[in-house]
Amino acid sequence: xxxxxxxxxxxxxxxxxxxxxHRPDVVIGIGDDAAVxxxxxxxxxxxxxxxxxxxxxxxxxxxxxxxxxxxxxFFALGQKALAANISDILAMGGCPTHAxxxxxxxxxxxxxQVERLYKGIDSLAKEHGxxxxxxxTISSPKEVLVSITLMGExxxxxxxxxxxxxxxxxxxxxxxxxxxAYENYGLRITDYxxxxxxxxxxxxxxxxxxxxxxxxGLVRSVIELCKRSGTGAVxxxxxxxxxxxxxxxxxxxxxxxxxxxxxxxKSRLMKLKVKASVVGEMAAKEKxxxxxxxxxxxxxxxxxxxxxxxxxxxx
Length: 315
Ligand code: ADP
Ligand code: MG
Hints:
- By secondary structure, this protein is of the alpha+beta class.
- The chain is 26% helix and 26% strand.
- The protein folds into 2 domains: 3-157, CATH 3.30.1330.10; 160-300, PurM-like C-terminal domain (Phosphoribosyl-aminoimidazole Synthetase, Chain A, domain 2, Alpha-Beta Complex).
- The chain binds adenosine-5'-diphosphate (ADP) and magnesium ion (MG).
């Protein structure tokens, strides 16, 4: 079977099925926004109250970004590569701490460009209190590659995962969707915020049952929440907040917004202290994942979102 036939998410499911455990300290391995580890410092009182988080994201030229001639995009690339990783740590309710940066570069790249890449990384690292503690440097035959591994930590009681949603929970989102798709996926990150404060408030609220970030699109995030929680869901099309100019399709399937997608039991919605929109409701698994229009007409959704190896790409 070819990768084109199963796609990125099919491949990850396959890898998850073959996942082996050799250690007792892995709380969550493959399948969430970040892996969760028990601390290996059992006598440290603070450490015993926290979990370590670790995530990685890779950006490669001509798939994730283009380096057009005459335009310096290295600063923005550095920022974006770190932003994607920070977003994953925030989605677990955590704070980022340390990063390893791997760069694969063809010989045409200048030293000044690499410096600007690091300035971009540092600008966000400074803002979020992250130290770059190492990485790897390799030559690449053609394309520029940046891969960041980010560590973080979360107090045990504030950990949020993709797997706690229950049928009947309301499906909520921060911010607006489809902006990056409408803008044809530039590297700019100034026009979308990482939801640092919102993620902290949500993780401490005690009312959120599951959370994920929307890096691969709203629909893909909902599919992942459903898959990990063992539920179905209905998304109310007319409730999805689209960014200025974005079509509904871009809002549903576009991705790269780095917004938070989370679930809250109906009875606790009044306690929500974060600006958010209710865009749907979780349902029993047998109901599947559906889209409802404003007249209540329901139809199944196309899976959509960005998927590596997929034959049909929506961006
Ligand atoms: P995100 O978009 O939040 O970064 P991904 O969709 O990239 O998440 O990955 C989903 C899950 O699959 C994560 O737990 C990730 O660590 C895991 N994963 C992705 N690729 C691999 C791989 N090649 N081997 C093992 N686990 C992987
Ligand atoms: Mg994620």
